[in-house]
What does this fold into?
Amino acid sequence: MFDIDFSRLIEQLLYQPDSPMIFSSGIFLFLFLGFTLIYNCLGKADTLRILFVTLFSYYFYYKSSGFFFWLLALVTTSDYFIARAIGGVGKGTLGKTLVVLSLVLDLGLLVFFKYTNFLGETICTLLTNCGVHVPSAISGSYLQSVVWQPRDIFLPVGISFFTFQSLSYTIDVYRGNIKPLNRLLDYAFYVSFFPQLVAGPIVRARDFIPQIRRPLFVSDQMFGTGVFLIIAGLFKKAVISDYISINFVERIFDQPDLYSGLENLLAVYGYTLQIYCDFSGYSDMAIGIALLLGFQFPKNFDSPYKSKSITEFWRRWHISLSSWLKDYLYISLGGNRHGKIRQYFNLLMTMLLGGLWHGASLNFILWGGIHGLLLCLDKIWHTIFPAISPLTYLPSKHNPNPKLSTFNSQLSTLIGGLLTFHLVAALWVLFRAPSFGIAEQVFHQIWFKFEPQIFLQWCTSYKAVAFLMLLGYVLHFTPEFLSDKAKTLVTRSPLVVKALLIVLLVWVVIQIKSSDVQPFIYFQF
It folds into this structure.
């Protein structure tokens, strides 16, 4: 009755380098349906359920990076036994040595797969600029320049995420924040849990491990919230982010000198929205899927473009990474314990390394360094001009005109918000541009060839892009109480309504889809 092409089916189930499995792909939705059926049947058999999820997670990673899932297994096994050893010896010299061993193994893998070519090119450039000559292996003569031959090294998806997550476990065990696990299976479950495996959030062991052996329970609130987050995340990723990327942003950043400054500026605004919708959309879906499975993740984004300062932005953007860098890098460097100058140095170094974490490129280092400098300037400003006490509507000696004070506060908030947003958006150009040259062209076009008179023509030519950009920003800046009402409405709606919303969204995605499913931006990190 049914003509099934088994060869095509098997091909879809195997690793495809050009089509990694992501939450918005049809193959994932198909597999997840079968996964949930088995998962719920294993609800009371904890060990079998944990083993099943772990195996599915490894398959999920295989669909993303092929046979490089052995890296995930290596990091998991080594850090599990290192943490066990640390738990036995404590904080002495041997304990420190074991932590260093974990750092060397995890960061060594990360450096090899992600930074080999970048470091090779950088070192060769420095040697050449310093006038160092090396003998040629062919002629025996001395070369005037040292040239790096790029290695063909595959970058496994999400390696930065699971190495950082595993590192936090061994460091927390050393610090005495948690006790080492007694089951390798439980630790493998924690590191490989597929909703957050390849693009975060970076989940702390102390938050997640207590949930592993907890009896499976999904309340109506958890289920409804999970569905809402999946719908919201899929809409942000597959509707807004993918569409404006393919149909506008990519065209501008490929050849910015062919477009006016206005179009380049709109592309900057477009990418600013795109990267937020892409990454927060993934995080929403990850958190939503985890809720459907009975696990709770912390929030990873909190309307970051509403920030009134660069410091507030980093408290709202990629919260799991920001807090990780603060707890395991900034504080380890000394934090604010050794005076202001040392604090600013630690902050700058943390953001420089945070930029390098995002990618093996000078663009990313500069992006992180400028953010670090802005964070330092923000702290200096608040040191010189400490924050005024919260606004009061009651007249007082220092506030004789509360209405004027209210206006000034609102004006200050508006100016701070606009300035922060545009600083962040401008720095996204370094993040998005494949080279300094492209970034320079974008800024050059905006500054010298703006041509504002073509705005209406642009709106006519890019109707759908303009509509989705406007919709995306309106939704982002919607007051929180309205967002909470929408979430409550979906959460409390009957199951049939939730199902209809998902079907409707899938239909919309199919209608506007103009190419293959686009990988998430943060897969490259």
User: Anything to note?
Assistant: The chain is about 70% helix and 0% strand.
